[in-house]
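BUG: 3D viewer hangs when loading the predicted structure for this chain

Environment: internal workstation, default settings.
Expected: structure renders.
Actual: progress bar stalls at 90%.

Input used:
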Amino acid sequence: MELKRFLLLNRPYNVFLSGLWRNNPIFRQVLGICSTLAVTNKLTNTLVMCGGLLFTVCLSNITVSALRNVTPRRVRMMVQTLIIASYVIVIDILLKAYLPDISDQLGPYVGLIITNCIVMGRLEAFASSSGPWLSFWDGLGSSLGYSFILIGIAMVREPMGLRTLAGIQILGDWWKPWTIMVMAPSAFFLLALFVWVCRLVSPAKGEVE
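Structure tokens produced before the viewer hung:
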């Protein structure tokens, strides 16, 4: 009972849980869903993209929060975009240096993190009006909430479409690969299924259970 009370009164925990589940960016806010089309045909690519987004959201949140009192409101959107772009460039350079094969497979999608609605949304909705510590937890919760949906979709698409998981064959010749699973439409069908299941398990206020 004391632990439950502590968690309820602990604001970083509540901020983290909000992004992870209660206000999940995908199945609650329906943001950043283009990534399901872009990268979820292979688990490895999905993990790298999710790691890049987590890095970008957390550090962008902290940076924008730290500069919130000295950033003129009339240029805040340009400053936020510049901050996001700086971190995305770092990710792109690191991928090209240490994971060139994955970098080639992801292609321009790494750069598109800059335009991901989740990143700008968290900066505007939270980091621009909260302290760095809480902003970090908000970024971590939102990016992990985004990641577990995409990883779940990738864990279905890759085995059914390629008979592999993270490049390792897990299904034998008895399984005939479903071509549609490596094509764009399957990502949206699976996303709709994941959203339905998540909302069924935990309906938002006002939704019919």
